[in-house]
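Tip: read the tokens left to right.
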């Protein structure tokens, strides 16, 4: 005896007949967007494809249905009677499909999202803005874990990480957030007390993992090899910036990370010559064919914030 699911010849013919008269979803999406805007160009912009691609999909749908859906005029289009009827039903169908998919996606946006973040990025950029992300996804709890080293995501329960570096880490997908543009900053009181001819002869502050940063920056700024510099090194860039705010010296910082300190009068840019660093900030998560919905949600939110 053979076990399994059997389909009668009648049912098989019925399924075949249903599929035979089912248009391509891409064709329906192109048609619905074009009908809603009454414009191939605007539909193309919405769908992030070319005008020609939308026109081709709509023409293929007309050929499939053997019916004209649009009246094409010199500078405009309008729906035919059959096109109007199909548009109303297609819009309903796509709304139902989208609602079902959205419900599935939202059901996965719950629990905890653990983010390992470089402390300077966490304190000076991410934490003040997280309220915006929480407002968009109230069922998702975010746990921020400041850390200097890149987390081994495969060996921890961290979902994603934000790191400073070149963007190349094996086994991880890296999404560039922004390239680092460094400027020297100090507190207003320290700036007022400076007595040396060249500001780099003053007390300089840096981070141990980025000990060559001042030499690289100064070499680019002066166009010649940097002299021997006296630098107070801290374990993290975040501590070096805190020391600068406290009047301890001059630190190099990306303008985005100290924007609020500058606006609040806690830091002043000493030399407004922005010199690109060889590094930047990256959002990283495990590579693979499937990415969790909560990671996708955070990735899309943070890239939109920085765009």
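Filled-in amino acids:
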């Amino acid at each position: 005896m053979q076990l399994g699911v059997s389909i009668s010849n009648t049912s098989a013919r019925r399924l075949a007949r249903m599929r035979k008269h089912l248009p391509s979803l891409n064709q329906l999406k192109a048609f619905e967007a074009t009908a809603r805007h009454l414009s191939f160009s605007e539909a193309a912009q919405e769908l992030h494809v070319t005008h020609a691609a939308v026109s081709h999909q709509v023409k293929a749908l007309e050929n499939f249905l053997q019916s004209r859906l649009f009246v094409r005029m010199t500078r405009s289009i309008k729906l035919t009677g059959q096109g109007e009827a199909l548009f109303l039903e297609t819009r309903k169908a796509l709304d139902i499909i989208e609602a079902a998919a959205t419900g599935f996606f939202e059901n996965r946006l719950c629990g905890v999202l653990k983010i390992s973040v470089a402390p300077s990025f966490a304190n000076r950029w991410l934490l003040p803005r997280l309220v915006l992300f929480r407002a968009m996804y109230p069922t998702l709890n975010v746990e921020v874990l400041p850390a200097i080293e890149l987390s081994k995501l495969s060996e921890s329960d961290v979902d994603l990480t934000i790191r400073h570096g070149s963007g190349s880490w094996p086994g991880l997908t890296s999404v560039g957030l922004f390239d680092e543009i460094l400027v020297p900053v100090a507190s207003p009181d320290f700036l007022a007390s400076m007595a040396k001819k060249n500001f780099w002869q003053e007390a300089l502050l840096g981070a141990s993992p980025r000990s060559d940063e001042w030499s690289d920056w100064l070499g680019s700024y002066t166009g010649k090899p940097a002299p021997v510099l006296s630098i107070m090194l801290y374990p993290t860039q975040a501590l070096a910036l805190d020391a600068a705010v406290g009047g301890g010296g001059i630190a190099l910082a990306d303008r985005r990370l100290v924007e609020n300190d500058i606006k609040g009068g806690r830091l002043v840019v000493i030399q407004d010559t922005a010199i690109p660093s060889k590094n930047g900030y990256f959002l990283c998560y495990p590579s693979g064919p499937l990415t969790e919905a909560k990671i996708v949600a955070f990735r899309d939110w943070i890239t939109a914030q920085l765009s």
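The domain at 111-307 is CATH 3.40.190.290 (D-Maltodextrin-Binding Protein; domain 2). The radius of gyration is 28 Å.
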